[in-house]
Design goal:
Elements (H helix, E strand, L loop, with lengths): L8 E3 L1 H14 L4 E8 L5 E7 L8 E5 L2 E5 L1 H7 L2 E8 L2 E7 L5 E2 L5 E3 L1
Parallel strand pairs: 1-6, 2-5
Antiparallel strand pairs: 2-3, 3-9, 4-5, 6-7, 8-9
Length: 113
């Protein structure tokens, strides 16, 4: 497990607070998994879900007692990113600010490199 994740990916305090609230309601550990899959309107799409524990090879970032885990394959596409939780008139969602993305879609859930 890569513990130097602070330089590779970060979880904002807003996102950590939201993960903690969701995990508490579901009776799960406060661990958010970010993965990247092929698909979406721009080529790749982000997937979020609660995890029970980090997997071997995961990169781990922690903020306010909440963990963000990213698998090795996905990390190559999101290295240097920040995961935030944003509320707006259009709704509320986790959002990835990805410096590696060459373009993205309007909803922010898919990107290309």
């Amino acid at each position: 497990m890569d513990l130097e994740a602070a330089e590779t990916i970060t979880l904002t305090p807003s996102a950590a607070k939201r993960v903690a609230a969701i995990a508490s309601r579901q009776g799960k550990p406060a661990i958010l998994r970010l993965s990247v899959e092929g698909g979406g309107c721009s080529g790749f799409q982000y997937r979020f879900g609660l995890a029970d524990a980090p997997e071997p090879g995961d990169t781990l970032a922690q903020t306010d007692g909440v963990s963000l885990v990213v698998d090795e394959m996905s990390l190559d596409l999101v290295r240097g990113s920040a995961v935030d939780f944003v509320e707006s008139l259009g709704g509320a969602a986790f959002q990835v600010t990805n410096p590696n993305a060459a373009s993205g879609c309007g909803c922010g859930s898919s990107f290309s490199v």
